[in-house]
Predict the 3D structure of the following.
Amino acid sequence: MELSNIRARDLDKFIEDYLLPDTHFRKQVKEAINVICGFLKERCFRGASHPVRVSKVVKGGSSGKGTTLRGRSDADLVVFLSNLGSFQQQFDRRAEFIQEIRRQLTACQSERGVQFEIQGSGWWNPRSLSFVLRSSWIDEGVEFDVLPAFDALGQVPKGYRHDFLVHEYYRPDPQIYIKLIQECKNLGKEGEFSTCFTELQRAFLKQRPTKLKSLIRLVKHWYQTCKENLKKPLPPQYALELLTVYAWEQGNKETIFSTAQGFRTVLELVINYQKLLIYWTKYYDFDDPIIAQYLMMQLKKPRPVILDPADPTGNVAGGDSRRWLHLAQEAEAWLSYKCFKNWDGSPVSSWYIQLPEESKDGWTCAIL
């Protein structure tokens, strides 16, 4: 079924029938992830020339956040290494660790009855190793990105990391973010070390209501449809996920809501991308003067600005504004489709959202 042909009142059924992963699919992906996690923890660095210790492996991406789309079997695994003592060391040494992971994957294929299709990277210092795991017990290949990282957070409270329990009040020591800001400035690499905060990124979305995660799936499906149709560069998908959370927080914040209204609100925010100034203060705020000064500098950058809730150096909406223009033009066209029409043909209303506008005296609010 094409999303553009779905009526507004049928969007929830469309999500259930076509976007939610089925139980069999989830089980296979989980087994594949367990295989790779076990390999990374127990086998990968045993033969390394210098001792390497894996402090933890964290599942990120859609699989970790609980927003996986049916048929899209991708998983991000962040490998935290005790050998990395700073963000600078992560940048300097990650290629070395990626090369060792590649070597060990190739060596252990026959032992585990799996095949790895390792994808090459044209970068001299890649952030990740990408490969597809195939096996007789998996219906289709599972795509992996493995990313070595500096364990900046250390041991996050145990309950916080578990899928079934999220610690609401955990906040990293501000010194971690001060160190991040200083090293990013030295390297000129803002947003480069977001992987170090994967646990926080995951928890930020994982704890959300089921209905909101369904809306995120719908927006991601729409985004993928636009990407396939346009064949043009678009903003990062993560920016759309955060934009959906923002729309819900500002416009609704209920566990039960109209999916069509939420969907329309997100698309209207995309159309108004030049007004977006979005950030959260769950894990960092303006209390520390160094962090506050940096945040003010970030918020003065050209719109759109969407700061990663776990990493103040990462403006996930930044870069080439033409990417947003392409998506905004597509969103404008979509608002005339069936999925935004009520049963009587009238347009579905959007949620009430206020967007900040800049004035001589600071920021004021504009109503979307």
The first strand starts at residue 54 and ends at 60. Strands lie at 54-60, 74-81, 114-119, 129-135, 142-150, 277-278, 305-308, 311-315, 354-359, 362-367. The chain has a mean pLDDT of 89.
